[in-house]
Amino acid sequence: MELRYDMKRSKGALLWFFQRITGIYLFIMLIAHFIIMHFVGTGEITYDKIAPRLSSPLWKAGDLLFLIFALYHGLNGLWTVIEDYVKSRGLRLFFFAVIVTLAVVLFIVGTITIFSVNAK
Fold this sequence. Notes:
Blueprint lengths: L6 H34 L6 H8 L2 H29 L3 H28 L4
């Protein structure tokens, strides 16, 4: 019996695992967001009430982690669908380049947004 390491299968299992982990994290953060914004907070939700919270380094780190997980989860899911339906190698390469470019642009814009919020 020969023991063989299958790189493609191992990579697929790891991507599958991370997709599940990020999905669980995003679901937990959705519930936390709903509770914080609608039960813990009082009154109308305004920038003046939210800015001090978003200025905190802990909140910034949490938002950055949320951004990373959301981008990974969404774009990896999109890539999975493309892999299932697009059979042309050239077209798949094109879509992969679009997804990577989209990920980089959204990460940069999201990071700038997260770190630009300052309390008055």
